[in-house]
Specification:
alpha/beta, 4-stranded parallel β-sheet, 17 strands, binds zinc ion, 2 domains, globular, TIM Barrel, Urease, subunit C, domain 1
Length: about 450
């Protein structure tokens, strides 16, 4: 073995020389000259320089503050705005939709259950391992509901031990969180939360038979669609709680119920919820679509062309109207509810609560990707500044997911970002003017991606 040493040393010296000759910027992408909105909520930085390598951000500075390493691929972004990859905090992913999210700059989704747990986990793994092009996925697996469950894929639980078992089943296959649904009552919630705490699984709650303050005090991580707030605010919550024995009856009464709340009560409930540290994913876009479901032009709005004709979940408005029997009086009530919902979101934010942007796509009229931009616009209409609305769709979503390396553009974070042709702080519609998207350090042009599914 000793005889091999001199050639070994020579070889090592050769490798060292080659390494020394290779430019330090090999494999580095330098994005130079854009206005940077970094996701933290800080004011934008002009003339930003972002160095990306191996799927991560190496450095963020101003142009000329640090050198672009020799050999780096430099891309001029003068006149453009860079924001972090968007996070949809409330999605029901379907396989056809994953590329659509990417094309719209959504690089992470929090999937709250539509499929079976196994198929949701399989799709998450396909996206996260890169075997299909899609966003990073955090999934709850199938929903946990009371009995009978609202959806056939959900797990219906009748007793405390059923509830614990449903939590265990999701933990064992690697769900990232849990989603509870409208028929979960306080007696079922207590053992469910206990088991979830043992297994360290956060709980996202679409409430019905439990009011929001009770669920928040029990430790749920997030209130989805602001469900349960009407029950917490109403003088007499009993009719709402019992209406939720049947999904559609509960939904209709609760959605209309917002209109009967007074502003003082809404503010009080918002502050009580902030005190529990629960997060809210308001999905204003869902409420807005419900209030306008009788408007057939929404099926033809720009962006709907991204939805395949076979995607019944988005397109089947007629079927939903048939099931719900909603008519003009219901739509009028839903429209009267909207200002109260907006007020709740404002009060919750003002009191320091965490609001994350979510779309509820791919439900009726809610387009994967596009509808998160619609949510951002509705947050602005409700009283958020454009910067706050972008933060709700980036850093706040990451905080909800406990994902420190997402939702923020800084050294060491993942290289998920969106390059915009306009300035969203001057007009929030600019978040939809996407020049290109970077996912895990890889450049993707939305138009090229669209060509692959147009075939
Ligand atoms: Zn949902």
């Amino acid at each position: 073995m000793k005889g091999l040493r001199p050639p070994g040393r020579l070889f090592a010296a050769f490798v060292f020389l080659v390494a020394a000759c290779r430019p330090a910027g090999d494999g580095v992408i330098a994005l130079a000259g854009a206005t940077l909105i970094d996701g933290s909520g800080r004011e934008p930085v002009k003339d930003a320089l972002i160095l990306v390598k191996g799927g991560h951000i190496e450095a963020v500075a101003r142009v000329n503050e640090i050198n672009v390493p020799r050999g780096a691929r430099e891309i001029s972004l003068i006149g453009k705005t860079v924001i972090p990859g968007l996070i949809d905090a409330h999605a029901h992913i379907e396989r056809w939709a994953v590329e659509r999210y990417v094309a719209w700059g959504v690089t992470t989704v929090r999937d709250l259950g539509a499929m079976t747990t196994d198929s949701a986990i399989a799709l998450r793994n396909d996206c996260n391992l890169g075997s299909v092009l899609g966003p990073r996925v955090f999934t709850a697996g199938a929903m946990i509901d009371g009995v009978p469950p609202t959806y056939p894929t959900a797990t219906g639980v009748a007793t405390g031990s059923d509830a614990r078992r449903a939590v265990d089943q999701r933990a064992v296959v690697g769900a990232d969180l849990l989603k509870i649904y409208t028929k979960i009552t306080p007696p079922l919630l207590a053992p469910l939360m206990d088991e979830a705490a043992t297994l360290r699984l956060p709980v996202a709650a679409h409430l019905g038979k439990t009011d929001a303050v009770t669920a928040a005090k029990a430790g749920v991580a997030s209130l989805e669609h602001m469900a349960g707030v009407v029950q917490a605010a109403a003088l007499n919550p009993a009719p709402y709680l019992s209406a939720h024995d049947r999904f559609l009856a509960g939904w209709t009464l609760e959605e209309s119920g917002w209109a009967s709340l007074d502003s003082t009560t809404v503010a009080r409930v918002a502050r009580a919820l902030v005190a529990t540290h629960v997060a809210v994913v308001p999905t204003l876009v869902l409420h807005e679509m419900l209030a306008r479901l009788d408007n057939p032009t929404l099926l033809l709005r720009p962006g709907m062309e991204d939805v395949p004709t076979s995607a019944a979940s988005v397109r089947d408005v007629a079927g939903l109207l048939q099931r719900t029997r909603w008519r003009a009086p219901e739509f009028q009530a839903f429209r009267r509810a909207r200002p109260r919902q907006d007020q709740f979101v404002r009060e919750f934010k003002r009191a320091g609560g965490l609001i994350a942007a979510g779309s509820d796509a791919a439900n009726q009229l809610l387009v994967p990707g596009l509808s998160l931009h619609e949510e951002i616009g509705l947050l602005v209409a409700a009283g958020f500044t454009p910067l706050e609305a972008i933060t709700a769709a980036t850093r706040k979503g990451a905080q909800l997911l406990h994902a420190d390396s997402l939702g923020l553009l800084g050294a060491g974070k993942v290289a998920d970002l969106v390059v915009l042709d306009g300035d969203p702080l001057r007009g929030i519609l600019a978040t939809r003017r996407i020049a290109w998207v970077m996912l895990r350090g890889r450049l993707i042009q939305p138009d090229s991606l669209r060509k692959t599914w147009a075939k």
